[in-house]
Model the fold of this input.
Amino acid sequence: GEDVRLDAHAMLAKLLVARGKLEDAMTVVDRGIASASRDSFFLANLHTVKGEVYEAQAAVALDDGAPDAEARARELRHTAITAYTRSNEINEALQKRLVEEPR
Done:
């Protein structure tokens, strides 16, 4: 059941990003991550979606024309990389565990 909920959070967040509702998308992602009781491929995917939200926020920051837009976008892209890294760490640990399990 948890995997289904995490997947639903990821899909909803992607839909919200597509509609330009980035704050709502991040809220959905953060709720999903907070609700996870264990690492799973679905949790890793949610961290990937979190990175996508940060990238979308960086694009918006560049478009707003604020004096600090470049710095803000760079910071958001760096945070996206952190989210992608967390996703990779979860996936690598899960794959390692699968390889090491006795058959």
Notes: DSSP finds four helices and no strands in the chain. Helices lie at 2-18, 22-35, 41-63, 69-100. The chain has a mean pLDDT of 96. The first helix runs from residue 2 to 18.
